[in-house]
């Protein structure tokens, strides 16, 4: 399960902006009774779903795990007390119950009064997370966070079901957003294509 980070900086920043921006809207919703401390929500762009868990500790550490239709994932961890600078390049050690990711690449970000980081892992990561009792994160010898993952198995099963439902729903059509001249209202949107 040990990997060497090979993620370019720019795509992670884009993910941080798109994913965490949409996540903040749903993070305040109450947890679903069947998911315990986890909250499940579809992403605003309809391209996947994410889980949120807020840990009651100084800075209210927030963990978000996003899963897209294509199977890619995004892990974001935020805390109001952290001083990570947005866009900072980080090398963090992630340890699960049965393996880890030493010196894994992450990018700093700030949103909703909290600072943290976003990263992604191989497609099997949600399965590893679901089978783990905790996620320990460190910056070299400095512990960053130790997060209990109780209930993550059921939560990640629900996350996969949510993404499957997203796959069954056609992506939003840009035709209704396009002006009569064929230019979409937001030509920089994820699914904006050139009309020929």
The Rg value, from CA coordinates, equals 17 Å
Number of strands: 9
Structural class: alpha+beta
Helix count from the secondary structure assignment: 3
How are helices and strands ordered from N to C?
HEEEEEEEHEEH
Strand content: 25-35%
Report low-confidence residues grouped into runs of 5 or more: 2-33, 173-178
Q: Which sequence of strands runs across the widest sheet?
A: 1-2-3-4-7-6-5-8-9
Question: Approximately how much helix is present in the residues?
Answer: 10-25%
Distance separating the two termini: 44 Å
How can the largest sheet be summarized?
9 strands, antiparallel
The overall average pLDDT, rounded, is 81
Gross morphology is: globular
Question: What brief labels describe this structure?
Answer:
196 residues, 9 strands, 9-stranded antiparallel beta sheet, globular, 21% helix, 3 helices
In short:
By secondary structure, the chain is an alpha+beta fold. It contains three helices and nine strands; from the N terminus they run H-E-E-E-E-E-E-E-H-E-E-H. The protein has helices at residues 9-26, 125-130, 152-168, and strands at residues 39-42, 48-54, 62-68, 73-79, 89-96, 99-111, 114-119, 134-139, 142-148.
Overview of the structural elements:
This protein has 196 residues and is of the alpha+beta class. 21% of the residues lie in helices and 33% in strands. It is built from three helices and nine strands, in the order H-E-E-E-E-E-E-E-H-E-E-H. The chain has a nine-stranded antiparallel beta sheet. The model is unreliable at 2-33 and 173-178 (pLDDT under 50).
């Amino acid at each position: 399960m040990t990997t060497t980070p090979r993620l370019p900086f720019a795509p992670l920043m884009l993910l941080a902006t798109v994913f965490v921006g949409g996540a903040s809207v749903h993070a305040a919703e109450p947890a679903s009774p069947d998911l315990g401390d986890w909250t499940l929500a579809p992403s605003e762009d309809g391209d996947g779903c994410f889980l949120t868990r807020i840990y009651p500790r100084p800075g209210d550490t927030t963990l978000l795990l996003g899963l897209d239709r294509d199977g890619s994932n995004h892990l974001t961890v935020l805390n109001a007390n952290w001083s990570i600078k947005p866009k900072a390049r980080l090398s963090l050690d992630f340890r699960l119950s049965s393996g880890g990711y030493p010196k894994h690449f992450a990018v700093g970000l700030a949103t909703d009064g909290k600072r943290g980081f976003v990263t992604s892992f191989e497609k099997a990561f949600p399965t590893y997370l679901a089978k783990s009792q905790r996620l320990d994160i460190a910056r070299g010898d400095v512990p960053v966070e130790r997060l209990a993952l109780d209930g993550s198995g059921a939560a990640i099963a629900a996350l996969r079901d949510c993404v499957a439902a997203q796959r069954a729903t056609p992506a939003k059509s840009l035709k209704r957003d396009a002006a009569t001249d064929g230019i979409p209202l937001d030509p920089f949107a994820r699914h904006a294509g050139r009309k020929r």
